[in-house]
Amino acid sequence: FAICFFQPVHHCTHLADSLALPTSGRARDFHPLDCTHAEHTKTQPSLEAQLVNIADAIAYSTHDMDDGLRCGLLTHKELFENVPIYRKFFEEVEKQYPGLSIRRSQKEVVRRVIGYLVDDLVTNSSEKIQGETLKSVQDVRNLQYPLIAFSDEGIAQMRVLKSYLMQALYKHYQVLRVMNKSSRVIQKLFEQFTSYPELLPPSFYEKAINGGVQRAVADYIAGMTDRYAVKEYERVFNPSYEASN
C-alpha cells in the first residue's frame, strides 16, 4: 500500500491544467464515483484527465483486492458473500476450469473484473461521446457531466467493491498501523526538509532555492517509494544509520 499521496503531475501541463488539483488537495476529493471535478472548478476536466482518474480507480481497487487476498487480510469467503462481481466471475472460473487452485482462480477473477470494468467504461463512454457535438476541449469542459464514465451497472459494481475494500481492508487494524507509521514518516521528513532544505539532494535543493521550499520538498517525497522513504527517514534521524549501512 503506497504511502505517498500527493504525487504532482509533471509530464503533461494540459493534463495538470485539466485536473486543476489544489496543492493541498486529497485524492479522495476527486474520486470519479463520489465527487466530480466540476464541484470544485465549475467545469469538467479534459477527456484525458477523466480517463486517467477512472483508470486509476480501476487499477487501485482491483489490485488492492488481489493484494488483500494474497496477504490474508481479505478472504475468499467474505468476498464471495459481499461482492457480487467477485462472486459472478469466481463462479464462471470454477465452471470453466474445475479443479483449479483457489489462488489461481482468484487471480483469474481479478483479471476478469478488470476486463469487465474496462469494457463497461469504454462502451459507455463511447456512447456518451457519440451523443455530443464536440469541437474543442472547451466544449468538453463546459458540459454538466463527465463523458468518460461507467454505466449505471458499472458504477453500482464499483461502489460495492470500493465500499467493501474500505471496511474490510483499508480500515483493517494492521493496515491502519502501517498507514499511521507511514504518515509519521512523511510528516517528519517534510518538516525536517522544509526547516533545513540544505539536507535535500542537490537538484531538489536548487529547486527549493529557485521555486519554493515546500514545493520542492513535496516533489522529492512524492517521488519516493515506500522503502526509500523509510531509508531516508533513517538517514536523516538515525545517528548510527550511515555507520551500519
> CATH class of the largest domain, please?
Mainly Alpha
> What is the CATH fold-level name of the largest domain?
Hypothetical protein af1432
N- to C-terminal distance = 26 Å
Radius of gyration: 21 Å
* Count of discrete structural domains: 2
Number of helices: 13
Q: Tell me the CATH architecture of the largest domain.
A: Orthogonal Bundle
Mean pLDDT across every amino acid position: 85
Query: Low-confidence segments, ≥5 residues, pLDDT <50?
Result: 1-32
Give the ordered list of helices and strands.
HHHHHHHHHHHHH
Helix content: 55-70%
Described by the principal axes of the CA atoms, the overall outline is flat
State the fourth-level CATH superfamily of the largest domain: Hypothetical protein af1432
Class per helix and strand makeup: mainly alpha
* DSSP strand tally: 0
Give a short account of the largest sheet: none
Share in β-strands? under 5%
What does the secondary structure layout of this molecule look like, with pairings?
Layout: H1 13-19, H2 38-41, H3 47-71, H4 76-82, H5 84-96, H6 102-130, H7 137-142, H8 152-170, H9 173-195, H10 202-211, H11 213-222, H12 226-237, H13 241-244
Helix pairs in contact: 3-6, 3-8, 4-5, 5-6, 9-11, 9-12, 10-11
